[in-house]
Amino acid sequence: MENTTEKWKKGIIYPINKTTRSHWNYDLKLIRPIVLLETVRKIWFKILVNRLSNILTKEQVLTNTNYAALRNESTLEPLKIVQSVIEDANKYKKEAWILLIDIFKAYDSVSSLMLKKCMERIKLPKNFINFVMDVNQNRYNRVLVNNDLTEEYYIEDGID
């Protein structure tokens, strides 16, 4: 029998068609893959993220433009900063180099090692770090295709 966190390591990818066509013809650019996870896991992590967000906000752990995901914050402030830089460069005829990056499959791109280092850097409790790392290791997904599930495949890195 699986323990709770072992169940949490399994997901089902449900491809949602991004087009108005009736079928996506297996073109991955035309679908948005949604990972279906255990409901209890989602609730548990929502509670943890809310508590962590409150602490990060109250203690002002994140600064500058690293706060967009916190409660009562948005990407508006960083966008205003970029807009001000552009306006200043135009007004005073200055050269400005701005790099904007849209990370494709951002959650899939998160390195487990870097996630751990970030949590250690902001001094999160060791047991919290270990829990997050455990749930995000040795994970497997299946894909729902034609109303049937594929075989499980191992998820090498990233977060859900």
Automatic annotation (TrEMBL):
The lineage of its organism: Eukaryota, Fungi, Fungi incertae sedis, Mucoromycota, Glomeromycotina. Residues 1-160 form the Reverse transcriptase domain. This is Reverse transcriptase domain-containing protein.
